[in-house]
Design a protein that fits this description.
This protein is an alpha+beta fold. Helices cover about 15% and strands about 35% of the residues. A hairpin with a 4-residue loop joins strand 4 and strand 5 (about 45).
Length: about 325
């Protein structure tokens, strides 16, 4: 149950953000994976071509989302029912590298410089494999680069991927991405303007006021509803300068924040909730994140001095809520 959006600033710079939901508390780190590093996977290994930085499962060079030194950003999202994974031996017979679903984002960010490179090469180089006779968590992926181009990569065909251009810069979960684009047709009447009052015979019917143009926008947490809500909130939000884009991303994604207990999976204690919300600056290669437990924004940069390290680096996320004490204003 994740939601992602791409936002461009007034100057045309590209930013991306996402929420990360799960029903099991995962331990996360900030992580930087160096280039020219021999990275082991579940079924093989490969050498990284670019340094990448993002949110990883603690102590592992396994990025859930991130950005690389070339400004390519992306992340993995749950993709139930439509994934088509195959045995690793079949993938090797095709001359491709078999990857577990959770390993694809790391592979893409450490091997591709742009969206165009992914589109051109990925179906010749990798495929998602069954690992230890298990599919694992089914996933699909979204990427965007400094140009603002965005694509969706779905392992929905055996031994390869279906790739879609993402013209709206919005991403959620199943069903397949092309269905979500078609579903937008059902909501073309939504507006950012307050609906006007009307005269109905002898009765003057007042408008019900603020937000009435968005009356009927879906508010539940299904992927279908979140896609529509994200598309329209992003569409109607104003263009801002680079200095305001990150806060704009957090404001939009706050609409998808799931408190603990609202979405139950299989029992009263098995709940899905928003474990973190992250945002990325493609130009500056900067990460911003706040956690469920700590709403204060934490940052990590892929600085030039960190590109030449020979092993992955990990950075602690502060889970305890941090507060800022207001200073007394200067009296004139």
């Amino acid at each position: 149950m994740c939601t992602g959006i791409t936002v461009k600033s007034k100057l045309g710079n590209s930013y991306w953000g996402r929420t990360q939901e799960f029903n099991v508390l995962l331990d996360y780190d900030g992580a930087i994976i160096p280039k020219n590093y021999d990275l082991s996977t579940s079924l093989d290994h490969y050498r990284t071509h670019f340094a990448a930085m993002g949110i990883a499962l603690a102590g592992n060079p396994l990025l859930v989302d991130g950005v690389n030194e070339k400004g390519l950003m992306g992340g993995s999202f749950y993709f139930g029912n439509d994934n088509r994974y195959v045995e690793s031996d079949e993938i090797r017979k095709m001359g491709k590298l078999p990857l577990a679903g959770a390993e694809f984002v790391t592979y893409a960010l450490t091997n591709y410089a742009s969206v165009a490179a992914i589109k051109e090469r990925v179906n010749q180089e990798t495929a998602i494999a069954i690992v230890d006779n298990q599919v694992g968590i089914p996933q699909h992926y979204v990427f965007q680069d400094e140009s603002g181009a965005s694509i969706v990569v779905e392992p929905s065909i055996e031994g390869g991927y279906e790739i879609y251009d993402n013209p709206v810069g919005v991403f959620t979960n199943s069903p397949k991405f092309d269905w979500h684009l078609t579903n937008l047709q059902n909501y073309v009447g939504l507006s950012d303007m307050i609906a006007p009052a009307i005269q109905m015979d002898n009765l003057y019917v007042f408008s019900n006021g603020k937000g009435s143009g968005l009356r009927g926008i879906p508010g539940d947490f299904t992927p279908q509803s979140r896609f529509i809500r994200a598309a329209y909130l992003k569409h109607f939000s104003e263009k801002v300068d680079d200095e305001q884009v990150i806060e704009q991303i957090f404001h939009i994604l706050d609409s998808f924040d799931i408190p603990k207990g609202v979405v139950k999976v299989s029992s009263q204690t098995d709940v899905q909730y928003t474990q973190y919300t992250s945002a990325y600056d493609s130009k500056e290669k900067q990460l911003y994140i706040h956690l469920y437990e700590n709403r204060r924004i934490q940052t990590l940069s892929l600085k030039a001095g960190r590109l030449d390290n020979s092993v992955p680096q990990y950075f602690e996320l502060k889970r305890e809520q941090q507060y800022y004490s207001m200073p007394k204003k200067n009296e004139k």
